[in-house]
Amino acid sequence: MQGERREPVVEFVAVTRSYRLTPWTLARPALERFSLRVAAGQMVAILGANGSGKSTALRIAAGLLRPTAGTCRLWGSERPDPTMNRKIGYVPDVCDLPGFLTVGEVLSVAARLGGLGRVAEPDALMRVGLEGKAGHPVAGLSRGQAQRLGLAVALLRAPELLILDEPLSPLDDEGAARMVALLAELRASGCTVLLTAHRSPELTPLCDRMVWLADGRVVEERTLQR
User: What's the pTM?
Assistant: First the structure.
């Protein structure tokens, strides 16, 4: 596949991440010798049940966790320059946003903190299916709506790498369809996307590669021809 010859945006090399449940117990690997390359412009999905290591892999890619062993490189660097953070958008499976703000205020604050000036709220919210919600308090949003707001915030800077943890999980059928359409739009624009999911049928037409994890290990990997 031609995309495989491109330089990777994200590269895991034999990454292991272990946790201790208590200080006196043995460390348990949540991710074990995990290797994966994601080239520029590709969309790659990591699939598996809860506890399989999917979220751990994404947090390592986002720089929120350090591997216990192995390396994770972004744009070829194991220790990326802090300025690279501007090129990355990360949306966790549960977005903990300030409940006392309105949806529009969250976008405005995020835009100012990112040095982006005034944001076009209707356009940003329409893109993630939250049109008409600018004046609604964040505390009143459903989990799926909060995650879509988190995605809107992540997209404000037009990231080159977008990392999404379970973007379809909290959504109903209509919301999932809109999310898939947005992912297709992002893929067409050249954005590199690394995501996790429980289900795969909706994602299969979009992905360049799909990897299945169980107990922190790769049990299946499939490269899809485009």
Answer: 0.90
